Amino acid sequence: MILLKVERIGVDVNSHQAVVLLHEVEGERILPIWIGPLEANAIAVSLEGVKPARPLTHDLTLNMLEVAGGKVESVLVDDVHDGTFYAQITFSIGGGNREVDSRPSDAIALALRAGAPVYATDKVMASAAVAAVHGGEEEEGEGKKDDKEEGKGPGPGRSGPVV
C-alpha cells in the first residue's frame, strides 16, 4: 500500500470535469481520479476547512459512525478496471474492523473529515498514476478514465488534467 495525500481538486481543461489529485507521500507520482462536481465540492469543503452550518452527507455519515462507537481507520483505492476506480473504507466498530466498498470520491471525502489516511495499491499506482511535473502539470498515464460515478473523462490517447 502506498500512502497518498489529497493534494487538491482541479478541473480538466479538455473535459471540464473535476479531478482529485492524490500525491504519493514518499514519491513523485500523482494519482488523478476524475469525479463529479458534487463529489468535488464535498472534498473541497473539507480541504478548505469549511464547517457548514448543517452537516453535509459525509459529515452525517461520520457523525453516525462515531455515535455508534465507530471510527474510520483508512481508505484504500484498491482497483481500477476499464478506467473506473474502486475503493474500500476500513472502519473499526464493536472491537473489530470492517470494510465497505465505496466510490473513491466518497471515501476520500469521508477520510478527510475523519483524519484517516488514504492509500492506493501498488497495482493501481502502476496502472494509473502519472509522474509529477513541477510547475503544476502532470504527464499522461495509461488506462485512466474516470471515477465510477461519472462514466466519462480522459482516457488513453486523450490529454490529462491541467489544473
Walk me through the structure.
The chain has four helices and ten strands, in the order E-E-E-H-H-E-E-E-H-E-H-E-E-E. By secondary structure, it is of the alpha+beta class. The protein has one domain (2-147): Bifunctional nuclease domain, CATH 3.10.690. Strands 1, 2, 3, 4, 5, 6, 7, 8, 9 and 10 form a ten-stranded mixed beta sheet that branches. A hairpin with a 3-residue loop joins strand 8 (130-133) and strand 9 (137-138). Helix 1 (37-47) runs parallel beside helix 3 and helix 2 (57-67) packs across helix 3 (104-114). It is globular and about 40 Å long. The two termini are 26 Å apart. Residues 136-163 have low confidence and may be disordered.
Summed up, what is this model?
The protein has about 160 residues and is an alpha+beta fold. Helix content is about 25%, strand content about 40%.
Query: Oligomeric form of this entry?
Result: single chain
Give a quick account of the main beta sheet: strands, pairing sense, barrel closure.
Answer: 10 strands, mixed
CATH class annotation: Alpha Beta
Radius of gyration: 15 Å
Counting helices, strands and paired strands, the structural category is alpha+beta
CATH homology-level superfamily? Bifunctional nuclease domain
The helix content is 10-25%
- List the domain count as a whole number: 1
What characteristic shape results from the CA principal axes?
globular
